[in-house]
């Protein structure tokens, strides 16, 4: 009976996340997952999506985003994870190991959703080399505080609390400051910034369709030079998309929750950057939030002319029932191969 219950529990996890059993060419020992599209504007582009946070379930969000980008748009995507080296399992509480980052050497875009990682020098070197290449970056949610590296570390300048704000402030435009909405009590409705109505990233995004149960972060934009707010975060009174906005100073003015940043080609920095403080797995249940992210991928890659007037196709691939955000809320016992899903299985 216990064995039967365990098998049923495993199947329920697979079904809720839209997983397929590892029968699509991946082995249980693989430390990342690859999705390869067969048609679409992204066929010649490779994306590396970096998960690894303890709270917002990036290990569930990024495989879904990778499947959308691959199977709806033709991109080739690798999703990498925080891996427990002793077991090979996905373990967001392992803060010092994300295998597979060497793929950044051939990547056209890096999407990062890590939180307070202290990676070994060899792994960090792949990230910093990519940043120096000038190729684009997209940061989600806790990427503003992606790294937490001691002051004596070779890559200490990337730490969220380094002078200058580390990777978050120097590259994305902001580091961690504080929650602006009340965490776990006030959700976020995205409102297109008045000056961004005609921006390609806003194309096809219906009013009220950008939403997430995560709260608004405090940021100091547009202070960093080159930053342009795209979506503002309206703090809501509760945790449902239909809830009313909070009255008072939390929404006057609203904080940006998505922005772009541009660097000169000779700056040694990514030429195009998109950041959103949304992006938890549960945020991806909203169609507008997904479309914002897919549109941002096209913009980051200089493919904005390919975004149709109705916006990009951001339909989910497979069933997607993400876990709620929260510490120690990840689903144990999963391997990267558990997220493998072939085009034929859709």
Strand content: 15-25%
The whole-number mean of residue pLDDT values reads 91
Query: What composes the largest sheet?
Result: 10 strands, mixed
Per DSSP E runs of 2 or more residues, the count of β-strands stands at: 10
What count of domains describes the coordinates? 1
Principal-axes geometry comes out as: globular
Number of helices: 5
Give the termini separation. Answer: 32 Å
H/E topology pattern: HEEHEEHEHEEEEEH
Q: Which strands sit side by side, in order, in the main sheet?
A: 1-3-2-4-5-10-9-8-6-7
Q: Which ranges are low-confidence, i.e. pLDDT below 50, for 5 or more consecutive residues?
A: 1-12, 20-24
Determine the structural class based on helices, strands and strand pairing.
alpha/beta
Radius of gyration: 19 Å
Helix content estimate:
10-25%
What do you see in this structure?
With 346 residues, this protein is of the alpha/beta class. It has helices at 2-17, 58-73, 121-132, 166-172, 287-300, and strands at residues 32-36, 46-52, 76-80, 109-114, 137-140, 188-192, 211-212, 227-235, 255-262, 272-276. Strands 1-3-2-4-5-10-9-8-6-7 form a ten-stranded mixed beta sheet, with helices on one face. It is globular. It starts with a helix and ends in a 46-residue tail after the last helix. 52% of the residues are buried.
Question: Nutshell version of this structure?
Answer:
The protein is of the alpha/beta class and 346 residues long.
Give the topology, please.
Elements: H1 2-17, E1 32-36, E2 46-52, H2 58-73, E3 76-80, E4 109-114, H3 121-132, E5 137-140, H4 166-172, E6 188-192, E7 211-212, E8 227-235, E9 255-262, E10 272-276, H5 287-300
Parallel strand pairs: 2-3, 2-4, 4-5, 5-10
Antiparallel strand pairs: 1-3, 6-7, 6-8, 8-9, 9-10
């Amino acid at each position: 009976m216990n064995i039967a219950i365990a098998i049923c529990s495993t199947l329920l996890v697979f079904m809720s996340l839209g997983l397929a059993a590892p029968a699509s060419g991946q082995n249980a020992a693989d430390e990342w997952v690859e999705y390869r599209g067969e048609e679409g504007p992204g066929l010649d582009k490779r994306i590396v999506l970096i998960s690894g946070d303890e709270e917002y379930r990036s290990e569930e969000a990024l495989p879904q985003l990778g499947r959308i980008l691959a199977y709806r748009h033709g991109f080739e995507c690798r999703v990498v994870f925080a891996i427990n080296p002793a077991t090979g399992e996905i373990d967001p509480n392992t803060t010092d190991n994300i295998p597979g980052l060497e793929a950044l050497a051939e990547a056209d875009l890096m999407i990062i959703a890590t939180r307070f990682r202290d990676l070994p020098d060899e792994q960090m070197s792949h990230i910093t080399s990519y940043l120096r290449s000038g190729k684009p970056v997209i940061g989600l949610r806790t990427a503003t505080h992606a790294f937490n590296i001691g002051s004596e570390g070779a890559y200490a300048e990337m730490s969220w609390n380094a002078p200058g704000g580390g990777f978050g402030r120097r590259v994305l435009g902001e580091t961690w400051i504080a929650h602006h909405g009340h965490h776990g009590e006030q959700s976020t409705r995205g409102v297109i910034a008045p000056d961004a109505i005609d921006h390609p990233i806003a194309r096809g995004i219906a009013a009220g369709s950008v939403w997430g149960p995560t709260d608004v972060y405090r940021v100091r934009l547009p202070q960093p030079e080159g930053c342009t707010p795209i979506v503002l975060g309206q703090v809501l009174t509760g945790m449902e998309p239909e809830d009313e906005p909070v009255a008072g100073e939390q929404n006057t003015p609203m904080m940006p929750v998505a922005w772009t940043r541009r660097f000169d080609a000779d700056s040694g920095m990514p030429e195009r950057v998109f950041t959103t403080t949304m992006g938890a797995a549960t945020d991806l249940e909203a169609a507008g939030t997904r479309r914002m992210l897919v549109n941002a991928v096209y913009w980051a890659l200089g493919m904005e002319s390919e975004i149709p007037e109705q916006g990009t196709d951001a339909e989910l691939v497979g069933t997607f029932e993400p876990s709620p955000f929260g510490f120690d809320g990840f689903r144990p016992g999963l391997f990267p191969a558990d997220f493998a899903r072939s085009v034929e299985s859709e």
